């Protein structure tokens, strides 16, 4: 045909000209087509579903990602993934992105991987491809050694996909476990997270919840009512407050999504990007002068005070980022900085339950100690406790096995471990709170410290029981003997004479000594017997 | 957590401190009374197989409680007489509910 249309002279060129024009046109067309497809997929579940999401007081999945990451840093992957369900008329349904958004971006300029379940698309339900997207970004974050942030807002397994959705959950849980202790894993519960789905957050390092928005449970109120006859609201069963205060499943509690995102970003300033890096150092600062450690602590071991005021009297800029503030408040855990570097604090809280160790506080502290050890964060322990909490309920709840966790965690940890005995260190509590015997690197004690097998009252009753019984005035004798015991044993010098304590220090020297200890242990090397893994008293 | 201070007795010493909600709501241990039968699990009463005043031998099924789709047989712990029946057929009862008093 061309032979007839074009003269011989242009013939060699015409093909090229036409082809270039054709490609230019078709490239433009494909770009337009791509844009159209993207626009469509970015709608998620459509206007109506988005409106519903907003009505529930929630941001959309994309808004959430944008709010957490640095502006304009987000790059989405797998936008065009489609579900593969064919039964129950599912083949006729289009689920954009299959209900989950994955990708990466930066926080304070450093890369992170993120996924967010999109409740507007089929209720964020998890099917095979939905799970594959999540596992893809999980694999990516583990390979690239960057933190993973997961935003959970899902109705649960997509029933229509049957066992495929269960397989999906399993693949996620397995990767959570693989990544544990290698990269930080953060779970944000911003909607329902029910049934098996709750186990992914439970396997991650930090769980964030928001008032009125987060709901976590294995079986919902409906099932509980029909099967067991117990009536309970969703909020009372598995609301944010319940998990932050009662169950200990959540580590951070916020009043709004915005506050929650701020908490996440703040946490990331304290922790390293993976287990072979150190946390970012900041310029060192002195504590604010209004936090005076000496004034914060009453000398009488039976009087309460807030240990957080002591921590703030020690840390750079008096800043302390508390974790699990509402759960088991008889122990305080969190991050601060010393000389610009992140340290983890574990401190008994005499203000609540006299600072005793019990099932919950042991769990709370042990897990945090293991976190710090995994990510090379030195641990500072501030000790002031009367021992383990007595009571039948505690014994029957397994305080032996729970309490053992803290011993295990401290013994196992090889990061720099420094203890300051503020006031009381009695009995099992003394041993458990990073004592020399569990291989503390440094143990300091204030001059008001009492290191003994129990408090003077209890000890005098046992040691001098005969004398007290036989006395004309037993009560007078008891007080006399308590005083005698106090004078002899309720001090740090007996322990110091055995070398269990390195130095008795003045309270005002605490920060200086801690900085010294941290500087000395900067290149600490300590190894443990080679093993596949230990068997902690889970 | 209440803001006012309470006391806590540990090894003879009285500490001034706050209580947690959990500590406040802790359950106190009671010596179990073998003449009382309580539910071990929450569930629905499907049938009551005995009457007040009936003489029942140890091991005989006196009640069927449905829980988690299972029909659980509640049996007589020893030979005795049913003194009181507190369960009602069709009733949904929580764990630890007193259902029988026996003699």
Give a description of the structure:
The complex is a heterodimer of chains A (538) and B (103). By secondary structure, chain A is of the alpha/beta class. Chain A has helices at residues 2-5, 11-42, 46-55, 61-68, 128-144, 163-179, 199-203, 221-228, 234-238, 240-247, 257-270, 293-296, 307-312, 359-374, 392-396, 399-412, 427-432, 456-463, 465-470, 474-489, 493-497, 510-520; strands at residues 75-77, 100-107, 110-117, 148-154, 185-194, 206-210, 215-217, 252-254, 321-323, 331-338, 341-348, 379-385, 417-426, 442-445, 450-452, 503-504. In chain A, the strands form two sheets. In chain A, strands 1, 2, 3, 4, 5, 6, 7 and 8 form an eight-stranded mixed β-sheet that branches. The longest helix of chain A is centred in the first third of the chain and has 32 residues, at 11-42. By secondary structure, chain B is mainly beta. Chain B has a domain at 36-102: Beta Barrel (OB fold (Dihydrolipoamide Acetyltransferase, E2P)), CATH 2.40.50. Chain B has one helix at 21-24, and strands spanning 6-10, 13-17, 36-38, 43-48, 55-56, 61-67, 70-75, 80-85, 92-93, 98-102. Chain B has a four-stranded antiparallel β-sheet, with no helix packed on it. The model of chain B has no long low-confidence stretch (mean pLDDT 88). At the A-B interface, helix 15 and helix 18 of A face strand 2, helix 1 and strand 9 of B.
């Amino acid at each position: 045909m061309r032979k007839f249309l074009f003269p011989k002279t242009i013939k060699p060129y015409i093909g090229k000209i036409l082809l270039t024009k054709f490609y230019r046109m078709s490239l433009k067309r494909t770009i337009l087509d791509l844009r159209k497809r993207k626009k469509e997929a970015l709608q998620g579940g459509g206007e109506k579903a988005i409106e519903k999401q907003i009505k529930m007081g929630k941001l959309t999945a994309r808004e959430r990602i944008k709010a957490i990451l640095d502006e304009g840093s987000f790059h989405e992957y797998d936008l065009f993934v489609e579900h593969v369900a064919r039964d129950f008329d599912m083949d006729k349904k289009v689920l954009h992105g299959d209900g989950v958004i994955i990708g990466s971006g930066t926080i304070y300029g450093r890369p992170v991987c993120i996924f967010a379940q999109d409740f507007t698309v089929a209720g964020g339900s998890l099917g095979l491809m939905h799970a594959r997207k999540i596992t893809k970004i999980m694999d990516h974050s583990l390979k690239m050694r960057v933190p993973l942030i997961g935003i959970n807002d899902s109705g649960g397994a997509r029933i229509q996909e049957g066992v495929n959705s269960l397989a999906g959950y399993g693949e996620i849980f397995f990767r959570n476990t693989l990544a544990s202790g290698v990269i930080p894993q953060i779970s944000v519960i911003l909607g329902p997270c029910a049934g098996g789905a709750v186990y992914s957050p439970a396997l991650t390092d930090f769980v964030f919840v928001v008032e009125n928005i987060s709901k976590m449970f294995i079986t919902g109120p409906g099932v509980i009512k029909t099967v067991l006859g117990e009536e309970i609201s969703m909020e009372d069963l598995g609301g944010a407050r319940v998990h932050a205060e009662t169950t200990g499943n959540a580590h951070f509690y916020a009043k709004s999504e915005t506050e929650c995102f701020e908490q996440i970003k703040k946490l990331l300033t304290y922790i390293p990007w993976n287990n072979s890096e150190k946390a970012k150092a900041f310029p060192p600062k002195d504590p604010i002068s209004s936090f005076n450690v000496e004034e914060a602590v009453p000398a009488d071991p039976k009087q309460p005070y807030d240990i957080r005021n002591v921590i703030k009297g020690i840390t750079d800029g008096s800043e302390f980022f508390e974790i699990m503030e509402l759960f088991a408040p008889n122990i305080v855990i969190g991050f601060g900085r010393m000389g610009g570097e992140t340290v983890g604090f574990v401190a008994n809280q005499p203000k609540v339950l006299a600072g005793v160790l019990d099932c919950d506080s042991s769990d709370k502290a042990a897990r945090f100690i293991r976190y710090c050890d995994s990510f090379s964060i030195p641990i500072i322990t501030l000790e002031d406790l009367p021992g383990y909490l007595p009571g039948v309920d505690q014994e029957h709840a397994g305080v032996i096995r729970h309490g053992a966790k803290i011993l295990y965690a401290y013994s196992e940890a090889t990061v720099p471990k420094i203890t300051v005995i503020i006031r009381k260190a009695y009995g099992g509590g003394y041993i458990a709170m990073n004592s020399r015997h569990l291989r503390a690197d440094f143990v300091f004690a204030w001059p008001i410290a009492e290191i003994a097998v129990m408090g003077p009252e209890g000890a005098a009753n046992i040691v001098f029981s005969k004398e007290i019984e036989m006395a004309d005035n037993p009560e007078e004798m008891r007080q006399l003997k308590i005083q005698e015991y106090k004078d002899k044993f309720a001090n740090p010098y007996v322990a110091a004479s055995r070398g269990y304590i390195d130095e008795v220090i003045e309270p005002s020297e605490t920060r200086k000594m801690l900085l010294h200890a941290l500087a000395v242990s900067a290149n600490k090397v300590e190894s443990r017997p080679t093993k596949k893994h230990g068997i902690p008293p889970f | 957590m209440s803001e006012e201070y309470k006391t806590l007795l540990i090894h003879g010493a009285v500490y001034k401190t706050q209580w947690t909600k959990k500590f406040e709501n802790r359950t106190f241990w009671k010596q179990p009374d073998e003449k009382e039968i309580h539910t071990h699990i929450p569930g629905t009463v499907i049938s009551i197989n005995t009457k007040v005043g009936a003489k029942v031998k140890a091991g005989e099924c006196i009640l069927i409680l449905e829980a988690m789709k299972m029909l659980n047989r509640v049996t007589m712990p020893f030979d005795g007489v049913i003194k009181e029946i507190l369960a009602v057929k069709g009733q949904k009862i929580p764990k630890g509910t007193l259902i029988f008093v026996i003699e």
